[in-house]
Amino acid sequence: MFIVDRRLNPGSKSLENRQRFLRRAKALVQGAVKKTSEGRDIKDVLEGGEVSIPLDGMHEPRFRTEGGTRDRVLPGNKKFVEGDIIERPKGGGGRGSQPGEGDSEDDFRFVLSRDEFVNLFLDDLELPDLAKRKLAEVESEGLQRAGYSTSGSPANISVKRTVQLALARRVALRRPKPEQIAELEAECEACTDEKRRAELLAELDSLRAKAKRIPFIDPIDIRFRRFETVPKPVAQAVMFCLMDVSGSMTEHMKDLAKRFYMLLYVFLTRRYRHVEIVFVRHTDRAEEVDEETFFHGPASGGTMVSSALQAMSDIVRSRFRPADWNIYAAQASDGDNSIADSALTGRLLTENILPISQFFAYLEVGEASGSTFEMPDSSLWTLYQRLRSEGAPLSMRKVNNRSEIFPVFHDLFQRRSAQEKAAS
After folding, report:
1. β-strands 49-53, 108-112: how paired?
2. Which InterPro entries does the UniProt entry name for this protein (predicted)?
3. Which residues span the domain enclosing 327?
4. Is residue 187 domain-shared with residue 291, that is, in the same domain?
């Protein structure tokens, strides 16, 4: 009898056994995911897909007997007789070119959903040094004092508020004070006039009766501290995406830059619930655009990087106060820039952008080439390299091929140890 499980995974989550398998083989699956993603289009990467891992990583611990004599019956045996020693297959447990021969191959394949694929790929990535400057955006709910109520848990009784209300009620109803009753009692004992004594006793009885009618603490005086659920603020961040779309940027370069920002956008939106993205593209002038125009809108002209930095500075000044926002920026360009613009670019970067930014990354894209000849550094790369040597907190990388996008992205945003953070 053969039992084949053809049940599909639920639409929003995987089966328990599937999750247990992913946890057990997480390191192998992550390696397979990153290897598979290098040759894919980003849109295909985000859709998940089939991955394979070595069978050697699928072994589970088990108990087995050592030594002793065992008898086994092998059906269909026409080659061996009792007493023969069966040799181990050559080439491992995988499938080779011939049975028992050649190198084994990864023959354990399975399909990852989109969420599983992206979570495994982005698992060890994070935005560096997220500084929580001011709490402003809403992410979760918390408890906040909201006055008093006449009912509630005994643990929430407000003694101070209860005593204040009881005192106000006694004053309003003119409840006799104990001192007043004590004075009348003393006067009665000292009084020798029977008529006056009778009047004092009648007044004393009236005060005592009134004191009994107006208790020291009444149930209507009791107040409980009330709490209500309110939005709990969290840190907010804004990510500026700057890209050169001038005539010197070829379609291949733009494709590399677009892929980097697409991955960056997916990473930000999955890692942080409340992160605003600002897209700024530039030629010899800069403009803030929407995501569709940023990725697909045509543009031509010269190159002035200072226009993008000035546009970012103006946007920060008008909408994102540095005291309230964690500001991140990433710039993609082919490295070309007007020589006359270098001084202004360096000044804007060091005086306006870097002091208010938590992180600034520069990605220089180039043409795909199989030649090993190293091209000279571009004018923008040289400028940024000089600023970095002078202490400017810049992260810089070069990319020429699609397969380099993911390693560079991983390198820029990888999780750093506490020692590395302290050193930086």
Report:
1. antiparallel
2. UPF0229, vWFA_dom_sf
3. 236-423
4. no
CA distance 24 to 28: 9
Q: Which two tokens stand for residue 28?
A: 């192998």
Structure tokens at 60: 């589970």
For residue 265, give the amino acid letter.
Answer: Y
Report the 3 state secondary structure along 75-132. CCCCCCCCCCCCCCCCCCCCCCCECCECCCCCCEEEEECHHHHHHHHCCCECCCCCCC
- DSSP structure class, residue 206: H
Distance of CA 225 to the CA centre of its chain: 35
Instruction: Name the amino acid, one letter, at 331.
Output: Q
Residue 63: per-residue pLDDT: 64
Do 161 and 204 sit in the same domain of this protein? yes
The pair of three-digit structure tokens given for residue 177, joined into one six-digit string: 């004070």
Tell me how far apart the alpha carbons of residues 405 and 38 are, in angstroms, rounded to a whole number. 8
Phi-psi region of 368 (alpha: psi -120 to 50; beta: other; left: phi over 0): beta
Distance, CA of 364 to CA of 244 (rounded, Å): 10
- Residue 122, classed as helix, strand or coil, is coil
Q: Name residue 133's amino acid.
A: R
Residue 136 lies in a domain: no
Question: What size, in residues, is the chain?
Answer: 424
Pairing of strands 108-112, 224-235: unpaired
Below-70 pLDDT ranges, the chain: 1-19, 37-49, 55-68, 73-74, 76, 88-108, 110, 121-141, 231-234, 269-272, 369-375, 414-424
Neighbours of 337 (CB within 10 A): 24
Contact, 109 vs 52, CB < 8 A?
A: yes
Crossing angle between the packed helical segments 26-37 and 16-24, to the nearest 10 degrees: 80
